[in-house]
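During the reporting period the student researcher (J.K.) took over the structure-prediction task from the postdoctoral fellow and processed the backlog of single-chain submissions. One of the processed entries is reproduced below for the supervisory committee.
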Amino acid sequence: MLNDEQITKAAAAIHAAEKQRSQARAVTLEHPDMSLDDAYRVQAQWMALKQAEGREIRGYKIGLTSRAMQMTMHIDEPDYGTLLDDMFFTNGAVIDAANFTDPRIEVELAFVLKDRLAGEDVTLDDVMQATDYVIPALELIAARTYRVDPDTGYVRRIQDTISDNAASGGVILGEQRIEPDSVDLRWCGAVLYRNGVVEETGLAAGVLDHPANGIVWIARRFAPHGIALEPGQVLLSGSFTRPVLVRPGDVFRADYGNQGSINCSFR
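J.K. obtained the following structure tokens:
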């Protein structure tokens, strides 16, 4: 277990890297025995630094929900990160790519709550009943720590990703709200275009067989810590496509069919 000083130092390094638009070395490079709990402590400390600067929690993200990604990262469960108020962009946003290190886009569904969710026995039905609406969303992911260290070739581990707020950098929300019981959310799909070329396609069933299961997981994960999911919070349920690299000048369009579309561009 990392001590408090080591946790504080790691969080400060990631915080500084984001502010300087640079990348820090992976935490596990210095602390190879770092645990997942250590990583979440680093994440929490980093979020506390941001809150001290005036940021507010607006929701959470669930990541690594596909079995293939879990096997790649050598884990058997998803991970989570925190969504702050300054991370949100509207449909059609023009975004400065230089504000993010190693940015990529993923296709998701977001759940917006109307009721509180808490406890280790939360079910999929509970999530559906507590959801005000579901909305198409793109997650802008960013790596504040090197995926591959330029000096050593060291590949960062899941503990580094979790410390880095599960690689979350921003969220672009669509406009068309979906009533949670109006469609079978498992069959909600999207086609992601970059500069008019199809880069990814996917179905929301790729997220734990139902995107609401991502919300179930995080509610249960938070329960032992006395943390609830609150009304009004935005919850990214997990990507059902691979991440697509973002470059200055790129224009993205995610077509969700009857559920609308999301457009954004990078300068």
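The committee noted the following: The helical segments are 4-20, 27-30, 36-52, 67-73, 124-130, 158-163, 212-222.
J.K. will present the remaining backlog at the next meeting.
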